[in-house]
């Protein structure tokens, strides 16, 4: 049987490792682009759902372009730019604000669709990483989300006060919705997320509402 030197074996192993590394890099690169496309498609589906439009993943981009007219990076002082999505539906225009916060076990997310007054909620969708099925995970249910429609994020002075998720909410209060039964920590996390994230848009909302008033 042929004997190979240690040097030969070392070079062979290094060469094999290099080939495997190149193959893995090529596969990872291909998968990364596919994963990014899947993430983008899911994002477009969620944004469409926020304004009441359902779309299959295949062809979602064409549907998205029918309703969403622009994606803005809103400049803020001392903070990273804030994302804002502009849409038009049934002759009306509005804005979707994406938010992220902490639930009980992981991140929770919401897309908040506002009318062109930057105040009235016309739709909202939630998602999460790992909330408890049947409890905190119920933030994604239609029953929970529908409570937000018609609620207001601004008080009479134009300050962002958001919408609180709380037990025994007053249905007549424009800033309250009922919490998830058995999901207190997730509900609290949603409240904090909406309050903190929407507050970041205060300066931009003030400017847009002032501009609208001047045009009237």
Keywords:
five-stranded antiparallel sheet; alpha+beta; two-stranded parallel sheet; 216 residues
Quick summary of this structure?
By secondary structure, this protein is an alpha+beta fold. It has helices spanning 6-50, 60-67, 142-146, 184-199, 202-215, and strands spanning 68-74, 82-89, 92-102, 107-115, 121-128, 164-166, 176-178.
What percentage of the residues does DSSP assign to strands (E)?
A: 15-25%
Secondary structure tally: strands: 7
- Largest sheet strand order: 1-2-3-4-5
Shape annotation: elongated
State Rg. Answer: 24 Å
Instruction: Give the proportion of residues in helices.
Output: 40-55%
Oligomeric state of the chains present here: single chain
Mean pLDDT: 91
- N to C succession of SSEs: HHEEEEEHEEHH
For the largest beta-sheet, the strand count, sense and barrel status come to: 5 strands, antiparallel
Helix segment tally: 5
Low-confidence stretches: none
Structural class: alpha+beta
Distance between the termini: 94 Å
Q: What does this entry look like structurally?
A:
- The protein has 216 residues and is an alpha+beta fold.
- It has a domain of 147 residues.
- The strands form two sheets. Strands 1-2-3-4-5 form a five-stranded antiparallel sheet. Strands 6-7 form a two-stranded parallel sheet.
- Helix 1 crosses helix 2.
- It is elongated.
- The protein starts with 5 loop residues before the first helix and ends with a helix.
- The mean pLDDT is 91.
């Amino acid at each position: 049987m042929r004997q190979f030197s240690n040097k030969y074996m070392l070079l062979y192993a290094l060469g094999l490792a290099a080939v495997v590394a190149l193959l893995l890099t090529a596969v990872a690169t291909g998968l990364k682009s596919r994963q990014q496309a899947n993430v983008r498609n899911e994002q477009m589906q969620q944004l469409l759902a926020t304004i009441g439009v359902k779309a299959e993943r295949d062809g979602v981009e064409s549907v998205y372009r029918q309703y969403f007219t622009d994606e803005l990076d809103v400049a803020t002082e001392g903070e990273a730019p804030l994302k804002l999505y502009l849409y038009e539906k049934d002759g009306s225009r509005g804005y979707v604000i994406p938010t992220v916060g902490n639930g009980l076990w992981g991140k929770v997310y919401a897309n908040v669709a506002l009318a062109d007054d930057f105040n009235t909620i016309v739709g909202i969708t939630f998602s999460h990483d790992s909330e408890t099925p049947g409890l905190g995970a119920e933030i994604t249910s239609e029953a929970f989300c529908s409570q937000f429609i018609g609620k207001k994020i601004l008080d009479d002075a134009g300050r962002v006060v958001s919408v609180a998720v709380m037990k025994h909410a007053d249905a007549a209060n424009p800033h309250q919705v009922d919490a998830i039964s058995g999901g207190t920590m997730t509900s609290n996390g949603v409240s904090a997320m909406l309050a903190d994230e929407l507050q970041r848009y205060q300066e931009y909302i003030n400017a847009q509402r002032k501009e609208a008033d001047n045009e009237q």
